[in-house]
Design goal:
This is Molybdenum-pterin binding protein Mop3. The chain has about 70 residues and is mainly beta. The protein is about 10% helix and about 60% strand.
């Protein structure tokens, strides 16, 4: 996947909490660090995020996106 953001951090999904509109995804990046990404529930479902998935937290400006 090509993307312009250059500050991606690999990690493992620790938890997925789906709301009606948004989802909170906790990503463990380096013990004991943890990043929380607030993404739409639709995006979380499309990515089929689950605990244990290897993902990359892509940080740009004030947002954290999730790529799988």
């Amino acid at each position: 996947m090509a993307i312009s953001a250059r500050n991606g951090i690999k990690g493992t999904v620790e938890s997925v909490k789906l709301g009606e509109v948004m989802a909170s995804i906790k990503i463990k990046v380096e013990d004991p660090a943890l990043i929380t990404a607030a993404i739409t529930a639709e995006s979380a479902e499309e990515l089929e995020l689950a605990v244990g998935d290897e993902v990359k937290a892509i940080i740009k400006s004030t947002e954290i996106m999730v790529a799988k």
